[in-house]
Write a structure and sequence with these properties.
The complex is a heterodimer of chains A (305) and B (238). Chain A has 305 residues and is mostly helical. Helix content of chain A is 71%, strand content 4%. In chain A, a hairpin with a 2-residue loop joins strand 2 and strand 3. Chain A starts with a helix and ends in a 14-residue tail after the last helix. The termini of chain B are far apart. Chain B is built from ten helices and ten strands. The chains are: A mainly alpha (305), B alpha/beta (238).
């Protein structure tokens, strides 16, 4: 392969991987921005999203809708709603009673929720890999000698579209503005008449929805699911959120895409094989934390007189 | 005499085991500017924070037009028309001026009305109109205070609770803010003003209360208080 082809190939791989990271990172970042919680259960929400969509898709596979694009789109929408509600329920049951507790209690609770989620799925699936059958073919198009399937291209477009819709929601609607305002000053939002609990629930809904969509996309892309699949992507998505500036929403998208691209291009560096890609991405995290601890888009606050 | 808008009856608040308010009673009448004076830690800010239920009351009552609103959810207190402008301005630094104002009218569903109120605030503070796209954090201290007051006006409040509007401002700006507060009051909004700067506050207010370690130790008409020896000594620095 020529250099140019390698670049194109890795660009596609990186964008795809980066969109998964970005979609999951958004949930981490939004929740952290609002209640300063590292929601460890978020990675498992991604995993549950994958399994939930597989269940629904299998159901549609036996009906006239089928399991091709129509079925995938419909099961994605249903999955996003169901898993979004799961996120809201988790917040109500596990996190809301701890609203005024020390942050550490909340963090440990999040670990507990994470264990409940992946252990439940482990029991249900007997800990086995599940094939994700979509009935999509391997048709595609070539750029030079690089072959890209339609599925890959559509997944990238879908992920970017979801991020764009989120961006519109955050910047244009009153609820979106309230989410940003809460991340800046929660008490002050109360004084503006914002029902803070409602906005926090909404944040969990949106974040879980995006993670679920990523979980489904991962299923479609890799063709299989496993109860522990959230673990690594959870850490990577968290890394993305930190790289972009945790609590900053465009930062999570940027961080995700950047980490995806860095990882896929990192595998091309001589003497660093693909088995070193995790080392590569976490080294980048360390570098960012040393030289710009607030992340790429994070800002330090200053007081004005 | 006009109607009592806001009435505190033997209000108590504590942080942990320590009582910050030890039974405060005061009345604010319609159309008045009432000021709360006192040194640091006397409980002035806590009084406002208890009214808007940022901290819960552990005894006594807050009444708004005779209706008990003690420990009602903060957002419902705002919807009734009691707006608290917190100490230190607390504008949203990462939102621009326009978005800050929009947040002020969060409870409002009518977009046309929102626009009308924004224009009204811009009329009162022309400098904000020029900076409508600027991030709140990049405004000067005086502009931030204007934005904080303007944001509170977006709800069309019946009572405005102002916490130290002069704090951290250059003396030359303080008078400007006080003039604005007077103008807002003349427009029909009742004001409860907390101030360290007793001189400025007593010049503006109709009546005043003096707080000392969580208790009201003195009350009266502003001009009487400003001539009172003990007040002059304690708070006016002569």
């Amino acid at each position: 392969m020529s250099l140019q082809e390698i670049v194109i190939q890795q660009l596609f791989n990186g964008l795809l991987l980066g969109s998964f990271y970005g979609l999951v990172a958004l949930g981490y970042s939004m929740v952290y921005g609002i209640i300063k919680l590292l929601n460890f259960a978020h990675a498992d929400i991604y995993m549950v999203g994958g399994f939930c969509s597989l269940t629904i898709l299998t159901f549609f596979g036996n009906t006239f809708i089928g399991n091709r694009w129509l079925g995938i789109v419909i099961s994605m929408l249903i999955t996003m709603i169901i898993v979004g509600l799961l996120g809201v329920i988790i917040e109500r049951v596990a996190y809301k009673p701890l609203r005024n507790a020390p942050r550490l209690s909340l963090l440990i609770t999040a670990l507990g929720v994470s264990m409940i989620l992946y252990n439940s799925v482990m029991v249900i699936t007997s800990g086995e890999y599940r094939a994700y059958k979509t009935g999509l073919g391997y048709e595609g198009f070539s750029i030079g000698s690089v072959f890209v399937t339609h599925t890959q291209a559509i997944l990238i477009v879908a992920a970017v579209a979801l991020m764009f819709v989120l961006h519109l929601f955050i910047t244009r609607t009153m609820y979106g503005k309230a989410m940003r305002a809460i991340s800046m000053d929660l008490d002050c939002c109360r004084l503006m008449g914002v029902n803070v609990n409602k906005i926090i629930a909404l944040t969990f809904f949106v974040g879980s929805m995006l993670a679920a969509s990523a979980g489904m996309m991962a299923g479609v892309y890799y063709g299989s699911l496993h109860f522990f699949m959230g673990f690594v992507i959870g850490i990577k998505a968290f890394t993305s959120a930190v790289i972009g500036g945790i609590g900053v929403i465009p930062g999570a998208m940027l961080g995700g895409l950047l980490l995806g691209l860095l990882e896929s291009f990192g595998t091309q560096i001589p003497f660093i094989g693909s088995e070193w890609k995790d080392v590569f991405s976490f080294s980048i995290l360390i570098l960012i934390l040393i030289f710009k601890p607030t992340g790429l888009l994070g800002k330090k606050e200053s007081e004005r007189m | 005499m006009s109607e009592v808008v806001l009435s505190l009856k033997n209000l108590e608040t504590r942080y942990g085991q320590i009582y910050a308010l030890k039974g405060i009673s005061l009345d604010v009448y319609e159309g008045e500017i009432v000021t709360l004076l006192g040194s640091n830690g006397a409980g002035k800010s806590t009084t406002l924070r208890t009214i808007s239920n940022l901290v819960p009351a552990c005894g006594g009552k807050v009444e708004f037009y005779g209706k008990d609103i003690t420990n009602a959810p903060p957002h419902s207190i705002v919807e009734m028309g009691v707006i608290h402008v917190p100490e230190g301005r607390r504008i949203f630094k990462g939102l621009n001026v326009l978005e800050n104002l929009e947040m002020g009218s969060f409870t409002l569903k009518d977009d046309a009305e929102r626009k009308r109120r924004i224009d009204k605030v811009f009329e009162l503070f022309p400098v904000l109109a020029d900076r409508r796209r600027q991030m709140g954090g990049l405004l000067s201290g005086g502009e931030q205070q204007m934005l904080a007051i303007g944001r509170a006006l977006m709800t069309d409040p019946k009572v405005l609770l102002l916490d130290e509007p002069s704090m951290g401002l250059a003396p030359i700006l303080v008078q400007g803010i006080m003039d604005i507060i007077k103008k807002i009051n003349e427009g029909g909004t009742t004001i409860l003003l907390v101030e360290q700067n007793a001189k400025v506050a007593l010049k503006l207010a109709h009546r005043g209360y003096v707080l000392e370690t969580g208790k009201i130790v003195m009350e009266g008409k502003a001009d009487v208080l400003s001539r009172d020896d003990s007040i002059v000594k304690a708070y006016l620095g002569h």
